[in-house]
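Section handout 9: paired folding examples.
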Amino acid sequence: MRLTRGEFFSQLRRFAAGFQAHGIGLGDRICVHVDNSVENMVALFSITFTGASVLLSNPVLNESFADLNSDDFEEVHIDDPKGTTLALFYSSGTTGHAKGMEISHYSLVANLYMTKVLVSYQPGDVLLAWYPITYASGFMFIPVAASTGATCVIVQPGLTFEQFVYYVKKYKFIDLDTGEKVGPRQYGELYFRDIMYYDEDGRVYFVDRMKDMIKCLDQQVSSIELEGLLQSHPSVADAAVVGVPKTKYGDAPAAFVVLRVPSSESPELAAELKEHVASKTEKFKHLYGGLVFVDRLPRNTNGKVIKHQLRLMYERSKAY
């Protein structure tokens, strides 16, 4: 089932009219137990249009539903959006018993505005919704897509690799600058903001996260590729690469390197490492931002390098 944005909101009002005709409205709490599908998504969110709260049941539709239209929907105004529950969820229970959580109407709208600031979704973007829509993450994700005009592809949770490849083939990769579909072995953005490419046999390869790509001399540079080259040098224990603003280059690749033997730090070793990268890459991938020796790389609790901290460190560090 495919719905345009306009059709989606029309269906919400139509379903809501049906629920209202059955006496569901402000103050009611409805238990919802559905899997992922466009139809179930419409049913789920149409309940919130009536003013009722949902406790994360397949809607029972009869022949009278066909006689309902969106004009039968009576708009509900929430006088206290902060104090009125929109939905109740249960936590995953990973640290103990699952706990109930209330989400207010105000919280949902605040989340939409926050997401618009943090993530630049726009019409033409395609988002893959694989979270269960009865989880907080899945429930909050759908309105984000709808409010920004992005297309949302709803799939069942527990996506297999074969299913993932199917959706990749169906929705393709797009060129980062033009938005056009790309051919084999050309870098493109997968719709959840990773840089990928596929070969002639349809095999998919990960290149880098979109936000970690560096645009140097009008060319896309993978930070992961340069990090791998640096880490292959016998003197290097760890390395990370970020883009730093340089008028001549746009974003110049700059390396942060942890040495196996810290006392071996020297301008000569820095030059050797830069040449190590330059000898194995195209000109636009060279370390024009220089190389900084550090004792360790800043990482979060998941072990991922916090690259925005590296950019701040670069401003006050000595780069060779």
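Moving on to protein 2 of 2.
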Amino acid sequence: GMPGEQAVDCPFQEPVLNYDTSWNSFLLMIKILSLDGWTQDQEKIQDATAHIAYVFFTIVTGSGSMIAVNLFLGVLTARFSAQDGKGVQTDSPRGTNSWLTKVSHMQPPEHTYDKFLQTFDSYIVLLLCCWRGPGPTAKRLHAGVRRMADSQLLEVLSISVTLIATGFLASDHWQCPEDWLAWIERVGFACMVFVATEVMLKLVATGLHGVLQSGWVIFDIVMLLLWLLEESLATTTILLRSFRLVRALRLLKASSSAQ
């Protein structure tokens, strides 16, 4: 166009951008990393949401961009790292065994906090079993729940459900039809119910001590709390959508590392 004239076909120069979608979050992340034009988006966010947007832009958008890039790199490098480990085991089994032995002796010492959680778990077990210890039926049930929580099927379902929900959320925009909004809400609700079920399975399988030692299970619990807050306030939480996307990325990274 003419000098000084705003381009009408450039998505970055639209007067209003929807920052409530995963896709625009990706675009903004790329713009921040490339240091190209992100100050205009910062001004638009601040004009739309007053002074609290300074905190939002600095912490959520900026830091979240760095975290997302690290997760992307982790997904890409996990498979190569696994292949390198296999090569070391094939080429020099004696050296590999020596390395594994050293790693096994580098476990951190048991802290008072861990002892407290183990004691707390034992009290819960005694309380649930009427102070007589778990019977054969309870042991079989617990073993079945543990196998289910550690199964490959649950991992595949978790990745699939999270990716489907993330895809539906990424299709949201300000002027989408009411019918489509209803479907987005249904899919999001189904995803969070699945996450809640997965957290309960892990809680029964590993106990409170095992759950609190897993940072990603705590991550899922925080996501559930944000979802409950979203439902109670009847608002759309941008941070919750970012959490769902991060969950999908870390599940893919864990799956690549396992293979």
